[in-house]
């Protein structure tokens, strides 16, 4: 990798990290606190549901008078364990699927404040957005687990230390999470999924930086409250995307008067060259 490309990649990782600061400032300035309500309910609810399923699994004994009963009890136990894992460990994707409409509305609101763009509700596009969100999150989840599974095979051969495995489990998902937030803006510009993936690869450093904080928050903030970083990620991503593309120009938007520049966190440049 050429030195200038590596430097640009690192600079864009920093942009992705810094957008959380800008996002927080923007939320405070424009009082967008209502968007934290759904993440709190879903995040905490998922956490305690996972605990409940864990408890059921622990209390489910593997026993039976014959092989059929023994296998059925084992399947029940594994089912409850799987449910616990889904709600506690996979909520990075599951919760985002459920809340995808909320994030789309939040991103639209930020764009409206920045540019005056407004997107009227159209049922056809609403359903299409839900389907797109499901496809993208399922694709990202499968890709992440396949890559990590391949890594685990290599790790078994070379006997990597446990701390490396933990880091790799986080790192593999960084790009997928960050790109997922970028796609909300790209979808409004009617890029298809293949074009969106291409854009995310062109700006891999930015996607990586956005994904770092999101992934680490989910891993280490307890009680499912890691989901609270999601609205900040969405706002920050919309702000930093306005540096890459001119969000004010979108033929699918209805134009309103934007809020004055003094109301925005900082004046954001537009139409910058994409990351090499």
Task: Describe this entry's structure for a reader.
With 276 residues, the chain is mainly α. The chain has one domain. It has 10 helices and 2 strands, in the order αααααβαααααβ. A two-stranded antiparallel ribbon has the order 1-2. The longest helix has 36 residues, at 123-158. The radius of gyration is 21 Å and the shape is globular. The N and C termini lie close together (11 Å). Residues 260-274 have low confidence and may be disordered.
Short description:
The chain has 10 helices and 2 strands. The chain is mainly alpha-helical and about 280 residues long.
Topology diagram in text:
Layout: H1 3-30, H2 37-59, H3 67-88, H4 91-98, H5 100-115, E1 117-118, H6 123-158, H7 162-188, H8 193-202, H9 204-220, H10 229-241, E2 254-255
Antiparallel strand pairs: 1-2
Helix pairs in contact: 1-9, 1-10, 2-3, 4-6, 5-10, 6-7, 7-8, 7-9, 7-10, 8-9, 9-10
Please give a handful of descriptors for the protein shown:
two-stranded antiparallel sheet; 276 residues; mainly alpha; 10 helices
The rounded distance between the terminal residues' Cα atoms is 11 Å
Strand content: under 5%
Mind summarizing the main beta sheet? 2 strands, antiparallel
Number of helices: 10
Low-confidence stretches: 260-274
In total, the number of strands is 2
Structural class: mainly alpha
* Average predicted local confidence, pLDDT: 82
Rg, Cα atoms, Å? 21 Å
């Amino acid at each position: 990798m050429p030195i200038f490309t590596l430097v640009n990649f690192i600079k864009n990782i920093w942009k992705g990290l810094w957008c959380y600061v800008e996002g927080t400032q923007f939320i405070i300035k424009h009082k967008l606190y209502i968007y934290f309500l759904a993440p709190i309910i879903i995040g905490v609810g998922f956490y305690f549901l996972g605990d409940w399923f864990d408890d059921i699994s622990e209390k489910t004994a593997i026993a039976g008078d014959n092989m059929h009963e023994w296998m059925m009890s084992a399947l029940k136990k594994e089912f409850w364990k799987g449910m616990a894992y889904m709600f506690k460990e996979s909520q990075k994707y599951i919760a985002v699927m459920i809340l995808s409409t909320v994030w789309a509305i939040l991103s639209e609101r930020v764009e409206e404040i920045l540019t005056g763009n407004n997107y009227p509700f159209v049922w056809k596009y609403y359903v299409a957005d839900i389907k797109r969100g499901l496809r993208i999150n399922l694709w990202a989840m499968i890709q992440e687990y396949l890559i990590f599974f391949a890594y685990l095979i290599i790790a078994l051969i070379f006997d990597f230390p446990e701390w490396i495995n933990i880091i790799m489990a986080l790192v593999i998902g960084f790009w997928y999470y960050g790109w997922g937030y970028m796609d909300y803006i790209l979808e409004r510009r009617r890029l298809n999924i293949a074009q969106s993936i291409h854009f995310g690869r062109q700006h891999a450093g930015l996607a990586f930086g956005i994904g770092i904080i999101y992934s680490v928050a989910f891993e280490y903030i307890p009680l499912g409250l890691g989901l609270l970083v999601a609205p900040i990620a969405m706002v920050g991503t919309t702000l930093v995307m306005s540096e890459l593309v001119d969000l004010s120009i979108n033929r699918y938007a209805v134009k309103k008067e934007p809020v004055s520049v003094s109301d925005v966190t900082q004046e954001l440049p537009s139409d910058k060259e994409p990351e090499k």
